[in-house]
Amino acid sequence: MERMMKRLRILGMMILCALVYIVIQSLWPIGCPIKYLWHIPCPGCGMTRAWRSVMHGDLKTAFYFHPLFFTVPFMAGMLIWEDLFTIRLKKRFWGVILVLYLATYGMRLINCF
Length: 113
What we know:
By secondary structure, the protein is an all-alpha fold. The chain has one domain. The protein has 6 helices and no strands. The longest helix has 26 residues, at 2-27.
């Protein structure tokens, strides 16, 4: 029962963060704050547009906006059900995610400039 409550709290926090993000973007539609302030894209730039494309059934456009959009549900699942995985597996998972995002970010920066 305690594990279930912890999972529900984590899921609730994720939903709350998403709702806050949506409200902020609606009130102050600048796109990515990092790109707005420093004029360079962040590692997650394009993720919102990618998921909007997924919601419209356009996977090709979603991959164009951010090729790692499909990792978000896996990361959310790892956070929600973290107690089901060993520490070793969690470290490997987050290490792979880090390498994927850094490699993608590097390639996107090279193509951007």
